[in-house]
Amino acid sequence: THFGFETVSEAEKTEKVYKVFENVAKKYDIMNDAMSLGIHRLWKDRLLHVMNPVPGTKLLDVAGGTGDITFRFVDYVRFRLRCQTRRELKSRQSLSWQQIAESYGQNESKSLGGSHAIVCDINKQMLKVGKQKAQSLGYTKGVSWVVGNAEELPFDDNKFDVYTIAFGIRNVTHISQALEEAYRVLKPGGRFLCLEFSRVNNPFLSRLYDLYSFQVIPVLGEVIAGDWKSYQYLVESIRRFPEQEEFKAMMEDVGFLKTEYHNITSGVVAIHSGFKL
Ligand code: SAM
């Protein structure tokens, strides 16, 4: 069962998932670091490398939670803009790289060159924690926060260049419906990217991973967040999620083309990619 209780209905699942993330919101970031020994940061960085966004990109980060993917997107775009502006300055003026770096304004470094990101999540509490983080870390420009369900997105058709969903899709009750919605809101040419726990393809690591997931993670959940059941749910939800090939086929069923996936850390997580063409 999902929570160690009786089997739950679909409506109950949505409600229980909501409660899980409401409970864990404040400790969510600390727990991610503790549970993955910080490795989730590298997985998220990898998603951005695969995305490789250019200035002007419109991103929809679904199940965006406390904003980790969006903040990386902003950093990535800012970095590209900085390089671009510096190259332009260098070609127009006979300044040294040192002088260019010094003259480079604070405002310019904050601009996103027409890029925009929307963090969309069903859970108000997660978004609240994310917004506070954005304020304190300086990720306010070009970022919006919207409450919404991945299965029924509050956006028009053909709006976004990139749709991301990181560690979110396994929590959605109807995965195919969420995929259809992703397809609908992407512009023609837009890209779907999903980062999610998947099937480990190394037998030794697989055994170790099982042991760690079922024996250690709920204990960490209890000790750090005082919440055994929510973390037990998270582990169980990973096991129920379709494996790499199956999820790729689900993406193709709703119309995505040029689909592929990359396993990371022997398939502990996978990045799935597909285009609306
Ligand atoms: N993407 C963030 C990250 O990588 O740190 C957060 C991932 S967190 C494990 C999963 C998020 O999915 C939670 O914030 C939860 O509220 C959200 N979520 C669950 N079901 C959802 C749904 N149907 N629509 C939108 N968000 C949902």
UniProtKB/TrEMBL annotation:
Q: What is its EC number?
A: 2.1.1.201
Which membrane topology describes this protein?
A: Peripheral membrane protein
Sites where the protein binds S-adenosyl-L-methionine: T66, D121, N149, A150
Q: Which InterPro entries match?
A: SAM-dependent_MTases_sf (IPR029063), UbiE/COQ5_MeTrFase (IPR004033), UbiE/COQ5_MeTrFase_CS (IPR023576)
What is a single molecular function from GO for this protein? 2-methoxy-6-polyprenyl-1,4-benzoquinol methyltransferase activity
Pfam families xref list: Ubie_methyltran
The stretch of residues making up the signal peptide is none
Q: Which GO terms describe its biological process?
A: methylation
**One GO cellular component term:** extrinsic component of mitochondrial inner membrane
Q: Which residues cross the membrane?
A: none
Keywords noted in UniProt: Membrane, Methyltransferase, Mitochondrion, Mitochondrion inner membrane, S-adenosyl-L-methionine, Transferase, Ubiquinone biosynthesis
Coiled coil segments of this chain: none
- Keyword Thylakoid (UniProt): no
Q: How does it assemble?
A: Component of a multi-subunit COQ enzyme complex, composed of at least COQ3, COQ4, COQ5, COQ6, COQ7 and COQ9. Interacts with PYURF; the interaction is direct, stabilizes COQ5 protein and associates PYURF with COQ enzyme complex.
Protein family per UniProt: Belongs to the class I-like SAM-binding methyltransferase superfamily. MenG/UbiE family.
**PANTHER family linked to this entry:** 2-METHOXY-6-POLYPRENYL-1,4-BENZOQUINOL METHYLASE, MITOCHONDRIAL, METHYLTRANSFERASE
What name goes with this protein?
2-methoxy-6-polyprenyl-1,4-benzoquinol methylase, mitochondrial
